[in-house]
Design goal:
It is a single chain. By secondary structure, the chain is an alpha+beta fold. A five-stranded antiparallel sheet has the order 4-3-7-6-5. Strands 9-11-12-14-13 form a five-stranded mixed sheet, with helices on one face. Strands 1-2 form a two-stranded antiparallel ribbon. α5 runs antiparallel to α6 and α6 packs parallel to α11. It is rod-shaped, with a radius of gyration of 52 Å.
């Protein structure tokens, strides 16, 4: 795929806008200049026509005629004119006008355009009355004055102004292109610095220190925050994976070492059939524990790796929560009886959440098992189901056990974590139960939280998205 330059696009866009504006300015300048030049010419033509009218004098003859005395008048080269009296007699005409009929007296008064001998002319036609001997003879002569000037000079002036505007706009366009390119390149320097710093991120060292200029740039500040968040999450994820691998290796090594030591113990000296049978049974128990550990690790990996779109049994299904609670209570009843712990459940019997039934029962079983194991004899573990609102269901499991220390409470959902620093296996657990519970709850779009007070008890709160409306309360 061909790469595109943001800088080039911005420069081209600015130049295109500037070019469009320059064309508009040039067109408006042309229209204005044409209007101004022809308006100035009209004023000049009127003044020259008035000068011709003033040059009409009395002829001092018996017929009280008039004549044009234009010897003292000086008009621009190329201008033409014709002055006529009442009878249409030509009183005077410019020397460069070969055919006076080219400027007829007949026509509307005012400005006009004409073409004479291949040249364009802009002229004015006036009608005036010249009075001879006012107050005595009072002879009135109606005059027709037609004056025209070639438009070549006007168009030359218009084209000159147009060239000036065009060259000025071109110079401004080139200057704008260079200036925009320079400013865009300079403005995008923080982005380049950010890219170089992001390119230094690697798996062994998740270090990202964004340049200060990127934080001061309003458009880049959200991107910097997002990259920092991604790097922190990746660092945390890789740290968890490294810790998971180390803890898993430790657990598996310990389990294998126990099996190996049992076999070595049997092989140290000849044994009786009963002793060999006892050793094999002991190895079988250890292998079962190892198999359970591997199974829990695989289950946790499968839950965390699944996506909501693909994990149909995790999200798309609707599960009646009380059914899962009842199943978990029935499964753990023997252990509860041995520990002399009473388990009670109450709440909405038809409250359903968007979670797979088997995953919900696994979650309930793990939490209830911990509650039963760490509760004292003759204590009670209570399970309460209730809707929080029209979208969320809540399951609360509270025990009256020994509780969890404050420094350990923040780590209870970590894989292979045990509150016992000696990593004692007296409870038979591998430290994956609550990690699996957290993964199941989050995969279903919910959450799980633990509150505990040493010597008083522990409360586990599970929130899940509702699937159907809750039913009336039914206690068990």
């Amino acid at each position: 795929m061909k790469a595109h330059s943001i800088e080039r696009r911005i420069v081209i866009a600015v130049i295109a806008v500037q070019l469009a504006l320059a064309l508009c300015v040039t067109v408006f300048a042309f229209l204005y200049e044409r209007h101004a030049q022809f308006h100035t010419l009209d004023i000049a033509l009127r003044g020259r026509a008035d000068s011709l009218f003033g040059a009409v004098q009395d002829a001092d003859d018996a017929g009280d005629n008039v004549l044009l005395d234009a010897k003292d008048l000086h008009f621009p080269k190329g201008d033409i004119f014709v002055v006529r009296d009442t009878d249409g007699r030509v009183l005077g005409a410019s020397s460069n006008l070969k055919d006076v009929s080219a400027l007829p007296a007949v026509g509307p008064v005012g400005r006009f355009h004409t073409r004479i001998e291949g040249r364009e002319y802009h002229g004015i036609r006036l009608r005036a009355v010249r009075t001879i001997d006012p107050g005595t003879a009072n002879v009135r002569h109606s005059l027709s004055i037609v004056y025209a000037s070639p438009t070549g000079r006007v168009w030359d002036a218009i084209h000159g102004a147009l060239r000036f505007f065009a060259l000025t706009n071109l110079a401004l366009l080139l200057l704008t292109a260079w200036l925009v390119s320079f400013l865009v390149r300079r403005s995008m320097q923080p982005l380049g610095e950010l890219a170089r710093e992001a390119g230094r991120i690697s798996a062994p060292e998740w270090s990202f220190v964004p340049p200060k200029s990127t934080r001061r740039t309003q458009e880049l500040a959200p991107l910097v925050t997002s990259i920092e968040g991604v790097v922190d999450r990746l660092d945390q994820s890789f740290s968890q994976q490294r810790q998971f691998l180390g803890d898993a290796a430790h657990e598996l090594k310990t389990a294998v070492a126990v099996i190996k030591s049992s076999l070595q113990l049997m092989n140290m000296r000849p044994r009786s059939v009963a002793e060999y049978k006892e050793g094999v049974l002991r190895c079988e128990v250890d292998c079962s524990r190892l198999e359970e550990l591997v199974g829990r690790m695989l289950a946790l990996a499968r839950i965390e790796a699944s996506e909501p779109e693909q994990a149909g049994d995790t999200v798309a299904q609707s599960t009646v929560l009380m059914d899962g609670v009842e199943g978990a209570i029935a499964q753990l009843r023997p252990i509860a009886e041995v520990m002399q712990v009473r388990v009670e459940a109450q709440g909405h019997s038809a409250l359903a959440a968007a979670i797979a039934p088997e995953l919900w029962q696994t979650l309930c079983t793990n939490v209830l098992l911990n509650a039963i194991q760490y509760s004292g004899a003759h204590s009670t573990v209570r399970v309460t189901l209730a809707p929080v609102d029209e979208r969320t269901a809540r399951c609360v499991i509270a025990d009256q056990g020994q509780g969890i220390a404050a420094d350990a409470l923040a780590h209870v959902f970590h894989r292979f974590y045990r509150g016992d620093p000696s990593r004692s296996r007296a409870s038979g657990g591998a430290g994956l139960g609550l990690a699996i519970c957290k993964a199941i709850a989050e995969q279903a779009g919910g959450s799980i939280a633990i509150e505990s007070s040493p010597g008083i008890g522990t409360t586990v709160t599970i929130l899940l998205p509702l699937a159907v409306s809750p039913a009336p309360v039914a206690a068990i």
